Amino acid sequence: MSPHLKNILAILILVLAIMIVVVYLNFEFPSYEYIFRYTYAGMILIGGVFISRELANLVIKELTPKLDKNALLVSNIVTVVGYIVSAVAAASYLSFSPTALLAGAAFSGLVLGLALQPTLGSFFAGILILVSGTIRPGNQVRILTWHIPFQWAFNPGYKYFSPDQIYAGYMAEVIEIGLFFTTILTEEGQTMKIPNTIIATDAAVITYTNKDYIFNVRYEFPNKFDPELVLGRMHKELKDFPVLHVYINEQSDKEFYIVKVVLNAKEKDHAALKSEILSRFIRLHRQLKEEKL
User: Fold this and answer.
1) Which distant-in-sequence residues (6+ apart) come within 8 Å of 254 by Cβ?
2) How far apart are CA 30 and CA 23, in angstroms?
């Protein structure tokens, strides 16, 4: 038997045993019936919460081989539904009148809402994310928010030389979506827990499609290398690539010039193509350097 099923059975047996004791005490001391009623409701709520957690863990264990990271979404949904059912069952057992229940809920909701506004905001944002499915484990997201300061590096100057444009914000992969926080893995390898309110409002999902995508790859060569020779060799190196243009883009300082390659490829392939073309540039640079020696 699974350890999670054993835990569920143990919780059920424990709750049942406590309720039997409470029933016995209720017969012995009938004048305290209202206290025992609250005890019953409390046991239903606590038992339901623990059982929901164990069921969620069981779902992760059983569905991960089939659904991979999406098993976390199912697990969170099981947890939310279990909490709601437990709360409703406990409240129903107390047999409050509708008027009293509505008045109490309104007052309690006002007090708790003001005190726990950020926490409740993350909770409901988490439910919205889970239900809508707009963000799932495995998605690439870019997060830019004033809550988490972000600043790209200005020095050294070549740090952001090759990209066509600079995108501010944290680029990360979604690892897990919880009820209050979403766990992400940044490009730098850092694991961060971000409140769901930020994920829901300040995160953009990055997707790569099969659409055409024009992008540039640039490389810096010393002036001692003949530009015509470099351009001719690069044309040969890139004859099998979807190249639109190869030309000298500009002069860098006074000792170098920049060769720019413009490509039109599928958006989903551009990262791999850029890596391959940069490797060709570096190899050509080394060959020319050896020939000069």
Assistant:
1) 223
2) 10
- Does 112 or 198 have the greater pLDDT score? 198
Evaluate the omega torsion of the peptide bond into residue 30 and state whether it is cis, within 30 degrees of 0: no
What DSSP character marks residue 268? G
| Annotated domain spans of the chain | 3-95, 140-206, 212-292
Q: Between 6 and 258, where is the model more confident? A: 258
CA 196/CA 80 separation, integer angstroms? 15
Lowest mean pLDDT among 103-117, 184-198, 266-280: 103-117
Measuring CA to CA, which residue among 48, 39, 41 is closest to residue 11?
A: 48
Global confidence as pTM: 0.49
CB contact set of 29 (below 8 Å; sequence gap of 6+): none
* Among the listed residues 132, 137, 229, the one whose alpha carbon sits nearest the alpha carbon of residue 183: 137
Cβ-proximal residues to 140 (8 Å cutoff; 6+ apart), any chain: 171, 172, 173, 174, 205, 206, 207
- What one-character-per-residue DSSP string does 170-188 give? EEEEEEEE-SSEEEEEETT
pLDDT at 115: 47
Question: Is CATH 1.10.3470 the classification given to domain 140-206?
Answer: no
Tokens of 51: 């059982």
Note the CATH architecture for domain 212-292: 2-Layer Sandwich (3.30)
- DSSP code string of 57-124: HHHHHHHHHHHGGGHHHHHHHHHHHHHHHHHHHHHHHHT--HHHHHHHHHHHHHHHHHHTHHHHHHHH
Instruction: Supply angle C-alpha 289, 286, 160, rounded to 5.
Output: 115
